[in-house]
Amino acid sequence: MKKQEEPFKFSKEVIAYPLLFVLLIWAVFVFEIRFNYRFNKYGIYPQTLKGLRGVIFSPFIHSGIKHLYSNTIPLFILSSALFYFYRNIAWKVIVYGILLSGFFTWLIGRPSYHIGASGLIYVLFSFNFFKGIFAKHYRLIALSLLVIFIYGSMFVYALPIDEKISWEGHTGGLVAGLLFALVFRKAIAKPKKYVWEREDYNEEDDEFLKHFDENGNFVERLEDDNTMDDIPLESSHNTRNVIQVNYNFKENKEEL
Prior knowledge:
By secondary structure, the protein is an all-alpha fold. Helix content is 46%, strand content 0%.
């Protein structure tokens, strides 16, 4: 019988890929500070052909240390959760999430440069939340509840409450994450099943159950070919000693 793959298994990619992404955006920021050069013009500038390049570049550009720091922790945590629970589709969610959320921002955004990884963060937040609800798997539902508990306030910043915040990028990320949760709805991680939980399970073929009688009593069954019954009496002294022990359970009706 083919061994079923464990869907939730920790691997180095769970930490390595999110860490590399975080280090990359920090490296870009350090480069800006070191050489006194700003990449803001490579951000998303809505409804202009030149501004489309920001769809790819904007997640790696930040306005300052506070902006970068506020995005670092949720980006690392949510992307790690993505690679742990949905490792088979993690890269699709990240790459397509950057493109789709960025394109939404380009469509509906105000005439200004939109930069930062917050659009991707909202994709990860939305996907992890809605995917767990749609999956109806207890671990993924627990992840959804944890995400909403920690980052539930993020919904507020998808509304135009602060002109300094790109709510358009946040809204685009929320919509993109929801769409991915629907598109990848069938790609649900299945929990590992025990032998007796599988559809093809047959009690009569279970070697463990063969050690019990119809009353549930344990009966030792030795299938060794070298038992005493198979050894001729005249040659038994030339063979190794074999001890067979049978356990029989008898009810004491007087104590009942």
